[in-house]
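Interim report to the steering committee. The following record documents the input for SUI1 domain-containing protein (113 residues).
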Amino acid sequence: MSDLDIQTPTSFDPFADANADDSGAGSKEYVHIRVQQRNGRKSLTTVQGLKKEFSYNKILKDVKKEFCCNGTVVQDPELGQVIQLQGDQRKNVSSFLVQAGIVKKDHIKIHGF
């Protein structure tokens, strides 16, 4: 019996290598810009994932003045602070964030129809 030691199968994690390799890429923070349909033709654009060091109210004030739309900053328990804007402002907001130097273009993900 000493020649044939019994080996019990250990748990195998198939994603262990992938998680170790993507540790640098997983830490890349994205800014998510989404559009939500309200009623009829009305829509709502949300911006989440901005760094905490930025003043959300100042960004909101500049975006509202630039694109002639109304908006607000909403505190979400899971997502933190989220900027909400009236209308479909996805392309406008993404170009504004890049031009203002707040976010790089490859850190922006645009979602929606």
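The first strand starts at residue 31 and ends at 37. The committee is asked to note this result when reviewing the revised timeline.
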